[in-house]
Structures are given as C-alpha cells and as structure tokens.
Amino acid sequence: MSVPDALLMGAVAYDPKVVTIWEGFRRRLNATGVPFDYLLYSTYERQVEDLVAERIHAAWNSPLAWIRAERLAAAAGRTVTAELMRDTDRDLTSVVLVRADSPARTPADLAGATVAVGAVDSPQATLIPLAHLAEAGVEVKVRRFDVGVGLHGDHIGGERDAARALAAGEADAACVIDANQLLFTREGTLPPGSVRVLAQTERYDHCNMTVVDTAPRSLVDPFIAALRAMSYADAAVRPLLDLEGLTSWEPGRTDRYAALARAVDRFGFYGADGTVTAAEYRP
Amino acid sequence: MTPRPGGGGAASGRVDLAGLGFTDGADLLVRRALAGLPPGGRLHVSGRHPELRVHLGAWCRGAGHRLEDPEPDPGGSGAPPSDAAVAVVVKGRRDDDRWFGAVRAGSAHGVVDRPPGSWGLAARGALIEAGGPEVHFDVNEREVVWADAVARMYAHAASRQWDPATAVDWSSAAGLDPEIETAVVQLMTYLVENEQAALIVPARFLGRIHPHFREVVQLLSVQVADEARHMEVFNRRALLHRDRLGTSSAGGRASLLTLVEETDFSMASFLLSVLGEGSFVDLLAFLHTYAPDPVTRRIAWLAMQDERRHVAFGVAHLQRQAEQDPALLGRLRGAIERRHDALADTAGLNDDVFASLVVLAAGEWTPAAIAAGGERVRRLQHAMDDGRRRRLVRLGFPLDEAAELSALHTRNFM
Ligand SMILES: [Fe+2]
Ligand SMILES: [Fe+2]
Fold first, then answer.
1. Pairwise CB contact (< 8 Å): A247 & B24
2. Could you tell me the CATH superfamily of domain B12-100?
3. Superfamily of domain A7-89+205-266
4. Cα angle vertex B372, ends B371, B378, to 5°?
5. Could you tell me the pTM of the whole model?
6. Residue B211 Cα, ligand 1 centroid: separation in angstroms?
7. Which Pfam families does the UniProt record give (chain A) (predicted)?
8. Banded model confidence at residue A252, pLDDT cuts 50, 70, 90
9. pLDDT at B396 over 90
10. Does the distance separating the beta carbons of A238 and B131 come in below 8 Å?
11. pLDDT tier for residue B71 given thresholds of 50, 70 and 90
C-alpha cells in the first residue's frame, strides 16, 4: 500500500457526479481529521479484484460486486465485510411489468413470452427478476439491453430501454426496479396507466461499503464512524447526501443478498471462487 | 386525517387514497398526511389501487420513510373492513432534518439594514433551507440604496411606461429647413450617446444590489427600460428624414466614460441622476419648447417625464443616506471634484451640439434670431445650474458650496 496514511476507497465512475460526491466527502472527512482518499474505476470487476488484492482498503460496491468480493476473498483465504449502506438501499424489490391490456395475469402466463431486461450485469433489472421467473418455473425469451456493461446496472439506460421496448410492443414484459416504474411514468417513457405490475420479487439490499479484512482498523473505524455520523440536518453534507441519494448511512447487513446469489449461481455469472463465468459479459 | 396519540406512544394518522395511484398524485396526499406527524409517527394508508403497496414502498424508500405491514386486527375475523390499511408508513427524519436551521430571509413587510449573502436569490421573507450558495451582492446596505418611497416610485414608473410605436405620431412629413433638420439630427445623435451611458450605469449596478432590496432593483430596471426607449426614439427621429447621424465628440465621450467608470453606487447615482439627468430634464424642456417639429417636441416631452423620476430617486435615496451618514457629502464633493479634474483637459460639450441648440432656439439664420437663440441657450445653462444647486442643497450642501460644486459639473451636461 503506497498511501498507508489514508483510507483508500474505490468507487465506480458510472456518472460524472461520482467525482462531485466522493470529492465532497473526501474534503469533508479530511477537514474533520479522518484521512480518506478515493480511486475511481471504470468497472466493478477491476474494483473488487483490487480490493481483494489489497490495492484499496474499501470499495463502494454494487450488490453483484459484493457477491464477487465475498467469493474472491474466500478463495484467497481472506474475508470481506459489509460495513455500511445507504438507508435507501434497503429492501428494494424489482417488478415485472406488462402492458395494461396484456392477457397475462400470473407469472406463469409469461411462458414463452419475450421479456425485456437491462444490462447483462444488472442485479435489479436482469439477474434478480429473471431468477424470480425461473424459480417460478417460467421459461421466457430474454431481450437484453446492454447499456453500461460493467457498471452492474448503475447506468439506468438499459432499464429505460427495456421499458421503452415494452411500451412499443416489442416485448411482452419488462423488468425494472420498483421505483423506476414511477420514474419512467413521470418522465414520459411510459404513458400513464399503460403498464401494470405482474410480479414483484422478494426484498433485497443494494450497495454496500465493502472492506477487506487486511485493511487497518485504525483507518477503517474512523472512516465508517464519520460517515455514520453524517446527519441530513447538517447543511454542509446534505447536498452530498442528496446527490448520493440517501438520508442516512446505516450499518451494513448481508442477509438480503440471497436472491442475487441464487441468480448468480443459476445463470453462472460468477464461479464459486469469484471467477467471471458469464457468457456475453464484456465489462 | 387527524393525528392522534397511538398505542405505542407515537402519534398516528390515517389516509385513504381511494383509487388514486402514485403515478397520479397519491404521494401528495401521503405527504400531506405525514406533515402532521412527528418523526416516528405512524400513518395508516388505505386505498384500492392495485399497485399501491409496490409504489408506496418505493416512494417511502426515496423519501426517507419506512414501510411496515399493518397490525393484524385484534380479534378480527373474516374479511378486513373496506378501509383497512394496506400498509403503515413510519415517518422518517428527512423532512424535518432538511429544514433544521432554516431561517426566514427577513420579513415580507420590510427591509433589514444588511441582508446576508446567504439569503441569496430567495424572495424576501421566504423560509430558506440552510446550506445554499453564498451570493456576493456587494451593494448590500439599506443606507446606501434605500428610499422610503421606493415602492411607490416603482409603481408609478411601471404605470407610466409608454410604447414608442404608438405614443408618437411618426408620420409627420419632412419639410423643415435643411439646416434646421441638420441641427435636429445633431442633437438626436448627442442624445442617443448620452442615453446609452444612462442605461449602462444603472444596468451595471442591477447585478450588484442585494435582491433583498427588491423595489430598488425593480425601479432601476424600469429606469433601464426607460433609457432603452429614449435611445430608440431619439435614434428614430434622427433617421426620420436623413440616412446619416451627426457627430460624436471626444470630449463628450470622455465625460460619459467617467460616469460609466464610477463603481460606487452612491457616487454614480449622484453624478448620473442628481447632476446629469437633472440637467437633462432642463435640456429636454428646452427641446420641447423650441422643437421645430411635432415628433421632436413629443419625444422630448416623453423622455423628460421619465428623467424626472430618475432624478427623484437619486435625490431621495442620497438625501436619506446623507442624513444618516454625515461623511457622505464630503465623498460626493470628492467625486464631483475628481471628475472635474479628469475632464479638465477635454473640450466639454461638442461644438456642433452647442451650435445646434442655438440654431433651434433661433429658428432662422438672421443675426437677430441667432442672438436671441444664443441668449436662450444661456438661459438654459442658468436653469441647469439653478436646478443642480437646488438639488445639492436638498442633499444638505450649504448654499455657497452648492453653487461652487454645480459650477464644477461637466460641460457636457451629462
Ligand atoms: Fe434617458
Ligand atoms: Fe435617465
């Protein structure tokens, strides 16, 4: 570790605002005596590899990256922990949408139908909802919209394209995160009243702050404590919290990644040792 | 929805959304119901929309609330009642926290002495969320910009706006003596040049005055619009029968440059409004009297009415400021002296302008008429001097000092 005096965190630059967010947090943390710096990655895959290789202490991880980090760490005889998460990343669900006039009433009615999904590596718009249908024994034709591959679905483009395909009649169903049905309706991608929810997945958690066990606790603990202490009532950090989309940093928990882990195994996305095994995945 | 203490000690409430969904505004009703509850309060939400539960969950996550399943009806059996809650929203801290430390940007009904930069562009009296950008408006003292009657002055100015296209009958035929027309064109050329300076000076301050002093900004904005119309009508009169303008002298432009370069609001207002525009009121009255054609007469009159308002505000706020700050008069004196020194080696009023004024007042080229015209221009200059002295005395200068300072005013009139 060439910079031993600061906690070094990786973040994926899925959007230019990522620089604003983490630069803002960096200034705030350093000003309050918490040594912190960040590295930006273009994909989650390199970020988690670097985490387990101890090139960084912590990684702001997608749920899929968390699963791979766990597996890579285990294969290397190490462990990773989920230290922290956003309040807004708890208990998400994905929904399978159909057009309002669709004859489908239950997931089983989608057998053989074309289902539009997001990018190949999107937990919320591809892996979890497709696994949900598969676990119900429904076999479908998948129409994938690979936008921002390697960003694990952080780029909303693929999900939006899936919704468009549904609205245009090019697909019989589309998979999106629950909040995005509202978003896509508000922004006009989906005409109001044009779609309905056919199925909803079980609840799952999204991003977390993953820390590798070899990272010195003397750097990790003040970092986590400082983030946890950030209050939405503090006008100096509120713009950063708004930009990152949270009201409070909550303790990490790992009991709600099971649905995604099953999907990863079902579709062979990663091997048990964290190797990337997904076909057609070019991050 | 009526908030009431719930079983667990937390306040609770109830809202029925009927068939309304979250894509059609259900969030407004939920938000309204939550507004009456403290953080931790429980809102029982019922409704028939098929996707209510899905969307309520997604909405709550984004809004910082928690969603819980409704408590089972104790001892209940069979079908739930039709207004049974679909879910319970537990109110989060987000809404309250956002407004922690919020303050009002003063009061809607009055101005403060020195509004802070943190109030920024918020409306006066608005509740402002903490943490916005600090905006630096350097003209931010009530003492410097304010006049007690400014709201009334703005309303009056707004009510007196006129349309150059219809307020003037532009159809008047050519037919002036060509040399009289030349004099008119020369005077219009001079006026346009001066109006441009009179527009730029308040316009430059508009972005520097703290918006808390809204009426001042409004009044000066209308003043800028006034000058825009003056530029238009004088330019249009110049080109009514000719296709070329008259001359612009180096001395005239030097005089205007010293006005435009003044960066202190009080000094600029003093030099422009009290002295310059004040003198222009007399000049426009002169043109109104001796105009050789109805268009010239009309536009001189219209511009004169506007200029009177510009002078009135300059005098009003400087008079007020001088009462509160005894050192102001000394600074004003310094400004007029500095400007005089800066212009000492320039030619002053454009000779062509002076000659045109004489010709207009003469009306014809006989020696007797020219002599009478010259006398009338001298009387105009006396009237300008009288007016400046009167206004200087109103600001608080003693009579003798007022006379001395008036004499130092630029020979360019503006
Ligand atoms: Fe004017
Ligand atoms: Fe004016």
1. no
2. TusA-like domain (3.30.110.40)
3. Periplasmic binding protein-like II (3.40.190.10)
4. 90
5. 0.83
6. 24
7. Phosphonate-bd
8. very high
9. yes
10. yes
11. confident
| pLDDT band, very low/low/confident/very high, at B80 (cuts 50, 70, 90) | low
Average pLDDT score, chain A: 96
A3 vs A225 pLDDT, higher one: A225
Separation CA B397–CA B335 (nearest Å): 14
Confidence category of residue B16, pLDDT binned at 50, 70, 90: very high
Q: Which CATH architecture has domain B142-407?
A: Orthogonal Bundle (1.10)
> How close does chain A come to B411, measured CA to CA in Å?
56
Which residue of B lies nearest to A91 if distances are taken between CA atoms?
B61
Domain ranges of chain B: 12-100, 102-136, 142-407
Q: What are the boundaries of each domain within chain A? A: 7-89+205-266, 94-200
Q: Is the pLDDT confidence value at A4 over 60? A: no
Which positions in chain A touch B24 (Cβ < 8 Å)? 192
Of A181, A235, A248, the CB nearest to B130: A235
* Residue entry with tokens 């404590």: A225
Residue A236 with chain B: CB contacts under 8 Å: 131
- The topology under which CATH files domain A94-200 is D-Maltodextrin-Binding Protein; domain 2 (3.40.190)
Contact between B22 and A182 using a beta-carbon 8 Å cutoff? yes
Q: Quick check: B48 contacting A, CB < 8 Å?
A: no
pLDDT tens sequence across B155-200: 999 999 999 999 999 997 778 999 999 999 999 999 999 999 999 9
Touching check for B127 and chain A: CB below 8 Å? Answer: no
Confirm whether A7-89+205-266 and A94-200 share one CATH topology: yes
